[in-house]
TrEMBL record:
InterPro entries: Caa3_assmbl_CtaG-rel. Pfam families: Caa3_CtaG. GO terms for cellular component: plasma membrane. The chain crosses the membrane at residues 35-57, 66-83, 95-117, 129-154, 174-200. Keywords: Cell membrane, Membrane, Transmembrane, Transmembrane helix. It is a multi-pass membrane protein. It comes from Devosia ginsengisoli. It is found in: Cell membrane. This is Cytochrome c oxidase assembly protein. The keyword Ion transport does not apply. Coiled coil: none annotated. Its main location: membrane.
Length: 205
């Protein structure tokens, strides 16, 4: 069973993100690059996962409720932190094909995390909520840490790429770190708290 409204909303957000002006701005602006990243993993993908999650759970594609949240969370960490290493980040902002691979990898690993969190049946709702909360809390922590490291860095990490009008390179980088903290960290944390509240409400007294 698919929630068509949420699925369509997620697809529309992703299409607007990738076909809109942001991809054309990432070469000169770290903040624009981060905004594109957060719109994809913090808005578009969660909506899509909420829409297709029931079908995925019903088909049993998320069978493991213990190892899976750990595996997808670690995979998400490797992909997100890896693409923010200077060499790969330079490639994603300089080469269109590298940006396409980066965005696709962000979307795929994020979709796995959100499907673990939101994909459940009536029989697995509580255990899936606990597994999902674990995955979202871990993702929130590593995104918050990465956003803080980028935003509080005393010098520009990606200065060689910077040519955005108006903003100094360090300010552009700080703005990108704030966007990661304010959108990515907060949305994943909020999702984890909602799922944990569901677990506690259903726990036997």
């Amino acid at each position: 069973m698919i929630d068509r409204a949420l699925t369509i909303a997620g697809i529309v957000v992703l299409l607007l993100a990738w076909a809109g002006p942001l991809p054309g701005m990432v070469a000169g602006s770290f903040a624009a690059h981060m905004t594109l990243h957060m719109v994809v993993v913090g808005i578009g993908v969660p909506l899509l996962a909420a829409g297709i999650g029931p079908l995925v759970a019903q088909r049993g594609w998320l069978g493991s409720q213990l190892a899976l949240p750990i595996a997808v969370s670690v995979l998400d960490l490797v992909v997100v932190w890896g693409w923010h290493a200077p060499a790969l980040h330079h490639a994603s902002r300089s080469l269109p094909w590298a940006l396409a691979i980066e965005q696709a990898s962000f979307a795929i690993v994020s979709l796995l995390v959100w499907l673990v969190a939101l994909g459940s049946t009536s029989q697995t709702r509580q255990s899936a909520a606990l597994a999902g909360a674990m995955a979202l809390f871990f993702t929130s922590m590593h995104m918050t840490l990465l956003g803080a490291l980028i935003g509080l860095a005393p010098r520009s990490i990606y200065e060689h790429l910077h040519h955005a009008g108006g903003l100094p390179a360090l300010v552009d980088q700080q703005l990108g770190g704030v966007i990661m903290l304010g959108i990515g960290g907060v949305i994943y944390l909020a999702g984890g708290l909602v799922l944990m509240a569901r677990v506690l409400q259903r726990a036997p007294s």
